[in-house]
Design brief:
- The chain has eight helices and eleven strands.
- It is α/β, with parallel strands linked by helices and 218 residues long.
- A seven-stranded mixed beta sheet has the order 5-2-1-6-7-11-10, sandwiched between helices. It has a two-stranded antiparallel sheet with strand order 3-4.
- A hairpin with a 5-residue loop joins strand 3 and strand 4.
- Helix 2 packs parallel to helix 4.
- The termini are far apart.
Length: 218
């Protein structure tokens, strides 16, 4: 099994490294890929080396795994004039068996038009963004850790990627394989605190720029 992980400056490190560890124990082949290969700076400052570029030839992936990141990093990818990242997602979605995201990586899939008509989950803080900007995407009730709708698999906030990765392993390799990975990583969560997911009504992304005068007149 091959997993393609398109990263960018400002992506959330646990969205990638936690699932990477799960996929590694499952024996999956994984590939970090970026628009410009080289050192990519994660949200928080850690750097990772990425050798594969979007234009480099690659075998089809069984799944693409889209991480979330800093809102300041997401905004230009979603709304900037350079749509290279979104176009890459569209190309890969045309051949991958599964299209997946964790945390607010779902916003990138939505901006690429890949979640229209699907039910998804995402980080609780970004739910208002979907309500305001992506009305054709349905949100699952109850903040599930992951949600599958046909060949779309989405995860909640950051650490949810661990659960989602096990779900993808189960889908692609079967329940015994997922159980073995759970055992080898000793993934039996028992956090020392018990808080509640808060309610929020505002989208953390920067406000959308108003249309230019030329656009309005057109």
């Amino acid at each position: 099994m091959r997993i393609g992980i398109p990263v960018y400056d400002g992506f959330d490190i646990l969205d990638v490294t936690g699932p990477w560890e799960m996929f590694r124990w499952a024996g999956f082949e994984q590939e970090l890929v970026a628009q410009t290969p080289g050192l990519i700076t994660c949200n928080g400052g850690m750097k990772v080396q990425v050798d594969q570029g979007f234009t480099d030839p690659a075998q089809p992936y069984d799944a693409i795994w889209v991480p979330g990141g800093d809102p300041a990093a997401l905004n230009p990818l979603m709304y900037g004039s350079d749509r290279t990242y979104l176009d890459y997602l569209v190309r890969q979605a045309g051949t991958a068996k599964y299209v997946t995201s964790v945390c607010e990586g779902a916003l990138l899939l939505a901006a690429a038009g890949l979640l229209d008509g699907y039910t998804i989950t995402t980080h609780w803080a970004f739910i208002p963004c979907f309500i305001e900007r992506f009305p054709n995407v349905k949100l699952a009730d109850g903040h599930p850790r992951f949600w599958q709708d046909r060949n779309r698999l989405t995860g909640g906030g950051i650490s949810s990627g661990l659960d989602e990765a096990l779900a993808l392993i189960q889908i692609l390799a079967g329940t015994p394989a997922a159980e073995t990975v759970q055992q080898m990583t000793q993934y039996y969560p028992d956090p020392p605190v018990s808080s509640q997911i808060p309610q929020t009504n505002s989208c953390p992304l920067p406000p959308l720029a108003p249309p230019s005068k030329a656009t309005v007149e057109a």
